[in-house]
Design a protein that fits this description.
Helix content: 55-70%
Oligomer: single chain
Catalytic activity: D-glucose(out) + H(+)(in) = D-glucose(in) + H(+)(out); sucrose(out) + H(+)(in) = sucrose(in) + H(+)(out)
GO molecular function, one term: transmembrane transporter activity
Family: Belongs to the major facilitator superfamily. Sugar transporter (TC 2.A.1.1) family. Belongs to the major facilitator superfamily. Phosphate:H(+) symporter (TC 2.A.1.9) family.
Shape: globular
Main location: membrane
Structural class: alpha+beta
Number of strands: 9
Strand content: 5-15%
Protein name: Monosaccharide-sensing protein 2
Number of helices: 29
Length: 740
């Protein structure tokens, strides 16, 4: 996790530069206006030019990042920052300055859009929220340091605005060096392009361990967009009593799950009837179901978080020694890794028709690994067919019904099952399924009552059994058409062969993706209209009324310098609040933080309205306003500031994540422009009280929208989140969850 944290810190330098730029232009424009004798329109254009640049670059950043990768776009962002800083340092006139500000906006737009995406794709699910709060922290830290610099320069006899703006090129040079020489490419993007070996090396670096094959399997499964997903429920227990030569169980409904150690296995029996997860019949979720207009998606996500095992995750209880999906009982057995280079070196003739040892087309069988037995060692390896990977049934693992599990974080496990049966024409048919498992409650044998009280719970009660919810769907790379071509078993197509076949429009119209876009776009719109720009605009006036400028003037500090110092302290006070948000983002969760902090924003805005409508006297008005503004800022950066970007980076499938986040970011920038340019008009027409009143109403609407539509995603792997969106969209459409 240290590797992922360091990579996230390096990536968020882009957000540090955004905060730095926001502060430096706010200070430099005071001196630009005086030196170049600019009118109000040009002055506003200089400030807004970076906003325009960010909006323009966002329109294509997502599609390009899905095409060429996340890292090249971050490198490009650092180059835009560096180049714009040099041009602003030189700018002889306003036109060159406007060009530099446009390039600066390009860098800002790429950083704001892609850094949260990059962090989500590289961070472990357990600390993804913490690391994705870093952009908010570094942005505020950049503003604080920049305001301190501007305050110091403002005390000089003749401050240079070119130097204020040009200093940006120094930290951007560090950002460029880190993106080029330190930051790796996103492993999820690499897998989506079929670059398995590079993805594996990146994951090993990020996780600080050699065995990352379980997560590699998860990344492959995350390539699916849409598809049929059903909710099932299993009773899972030990299978130690079975002999090596026995079938998993006589009952065809039982599935054997294999661990990495020889002889370590479990048996899973599907619970007949409807799954408790699909009905969401837990106590808390039933309460949510009675809420009018509550999205089934929110209830589904909530059902996972409400009844987490009190004694730990399923991994700690059921799979205490769980290891790699790809690790074998005997590691020296050939062809157990996704390493075609070693296969070529060993001269086994497994190289595919591509024949390139540096490509990933040489992959042979182990998208699913197996426990090696003497039977397997005696079997000949089948020859690969081009880029098709054959998953063979052998020994006890792939005979009858079998599966293999891989821990994927957040209490979730990844498994597959192969169910063989005879078709109508007498030929054997198989159903190859992927399963995401999540434990429900504690061990069944420790609960009051018996398994008979659970629908379909006719499993024996001797020993430790648990109940697990299961998301069952088609594997990402499994093609039914390939079964006939490869009679040895189910086949998988290499990700590189399917990378260019994703139809963007069709993927965006998938019910789960459309649902996620509604959540992402909705929360970005409401965040921008929740009042942060208005409060920022009003802060100097409030502090002036509080007499802060008088106090500073008595210390010999001019009005301009006073405003810079006040802004520096305002950003400084935000940092502890963001640190608190980082601590609780993966504990309380995103949804809980939003539902807790937004009422505080509403109260602060209502108090500002009351303070401006009624006359409490100058001193009382200044005190009330100052307290409300401080509370608003600190609360905003704890919840509504960072969380919309975090959510948008989590809820979309891998192959369309870039373009979907770009759509949400484009909405963000457009709303930012609207709010910025309508604020002066609104102030002149309805006054300060009216503006804050509208913001308070928007915050109320935000709370309702989040309560009804925004699910809790803490601790869940990204691939599981997207599966839940697919299931929730299916339920909302009236189909419900289909149980087999």
């Amino acid at each position: 996790m240290n590797g992922a944290a360091l990579v996230a810190i390096a990536a968020t330098i882009g957000n540090f530069l955004q905060g730095w730029d926001n502060a430096t232009i706010a200070g430099a424009v005071v001196y630009i206006k005086k030196e170049l004798q600019l009118g109000a329109a040009i002055e506003g254009l200089i400030v807004a030019m970076s906003l325009i640049g960010a909006t323009l670059i966002t329109t294509c950043s997502g599609t390009i990042s899905d095409w060429i990768g996340r890292r090249p776009m971050l490198i490009l962002s650092s180059m835009f920052y560096f180049l714009s800083g040099l041009i602003m340092l030189w700018s002889p006139n306003v036109y060159v300055l406007l060009l530099a500000r446009l390039l600066d906006g390009f860098g800002i737009g790429l950083a704001v859009t892609l850094v949260p995406l990059y962090i989500s794709e590289t961070a472990p699910s357990e600390i993804r929220g913490l690391l994705n709060t870093l952009p908010q922290f570094t942005g505020s830290g950049g503003m604080f340091l920049a305001y301190c610099m501007i305050f110091g320069m403002s005390l000089l006899p003749s401050p240079s605005w070119r130097l204020m703006l040009g200093v940006l090129s120094i930290p951007s040079l560090l950002y460029f060096a880190l993106t080029v020489f330190y930051l790796p490419e996103s492993p999820r993007w690499l897998v989506s392009k079929g670059k398995m070996l590079e993805a594996k090396r990146v994951l090993q670096k990020l996780r600080g361990r050699e065995d990352v094959s379980g997560e590699m399997a998860l990344l492959v499964e995350g390539l699916a967009v849409g598809g049929e997903t059903s909710l099932e429920e299993y009773i899972i227990g030990p299978a130690d009593e079975l002999g090596e030569d026995q079938e998993p169980m006589a009952d065809k409904d039982h599935i054997k799950l294999y661990g990495p150690e020889e002889g370590l296995s479990w048996v899973a029996k599907p619970v007949t009837g409807q799954s408790r997860l699909s009905l969401v019949s837990r106590q808390g979720s039933m309460a949510n179901q009675n809420v009018p207009l509550m999205d089934p998606l929110v209830t589904l996500f909530g059902s996972v978080h409400e009844k987490l095992p009190e004694t730990g995750s399923m991994r700690s209880m059921l799979f205490p020694n769980f290891g790699s999906m790809f690790s074998a009982a005997e590691p020296n057995i050939k062809n157990e890794e996704w390493d075609e280079e070693s296969l070529q070196r060993e001269g086994e003739g497994y190289v595919s028709e591509a024949g390139d040892a540096d490509s990933d087309d040489n992959l042979q069988s182990p998208l699913i690994s197996r426990q090696n037995t003497s039977m397997e060692k005696e079997m000949a390896h089948p020859q690969s067919h081009g880029s098709v990977l054959n998953i063979r049934r052998h020994s006890s693992l792939m005979q009858g019904n079998a599966g293999e599990v891989a821990g994927i974080g957040g209490g979730w496990q990844l498994a597959w099952k192969w169910s063989e049966r005879e078709g109508e024409d007498g030929k054997k048919e198989g159903g190859f399924k992927r399963i995401y498992l999540h434990q429900e409650g504690g061990p069944l044998s420790s609960r009051r009552g018996s398994l008979v009280s659970i629908p379909g719970g006719d499993a024996p009660i001797d020993g430790e059994y648990i109940q697990a919810a299961a998301l069952v769907s088609q594997p990402a790379l499994y093609s039914k058409e390939l079964v006939d071509q490869h009679a040895v078993g189910p086949a998988m197509v290499h990700p590189g062969k399917t990378a260019g076949k994703v139809q963007i429009l069709a993927a965006l119209l998938e019910p789960g993706v459309k649902r996620a876009l509604i959540v992402g776009i909705g929360i970005q719109i409401l965040q921008q209209f929740s009042g942060i720009n208005g409060v920022l605009y009003y802060t100097p006036q409030i502090l002036q009324q509080a007499g802060v400028d008088v106090l500073l003037s008595n210390l010999g500090i001019g009005s301009d310098s006073s405003s810079f110092l006040i802004s520096a302290f305002t950003n400084f006070f935000m940092l502890p609040s963001i640190a608190v948000a980082m601590r609780f983002m993966d504990v309380s969760g995103r949804r809980s933080l939003l539902l807790t902090t937004i009422p505080v924003l509403i109260i602060s805005l209502v108090a500002l309205v009351i303070g401006n409508v009624f006359d409490f006297g100058t001193v009382a008005h200044a005190i009330i306003s100052t307290i409300c503004v401080v509370i608003y800022f600190c609360t905003f950066v704890m919840g509504y500031g960072p969380i919309p970007n975090i959510l948008c980076s989590e809820i979309f499938p891998t192959r369309v994540r870039g373009i979907c986040i770009a759509i949400c970011a484009l909405v963000f920038w457009i709303c930012d422009v609207i709010v910025t340019y309508t604020l002066p008009v609104m102030l002149s027409s309805i006054g300060l009280a009216g503006v804050f009143g509208i913001y308070a109403v928007v915050c109320v609407v935000s709370w309702i929208f989040i309560f009804l539509r925004v699910p809790e995603t803490k601790g869940m792997p990204l691939e599981v989140i997207t599966e839940f969106f697919a299931v929730g969209a299916k339920q909302a459409a009236g189909g419900g969850a289909k149980n087999e």
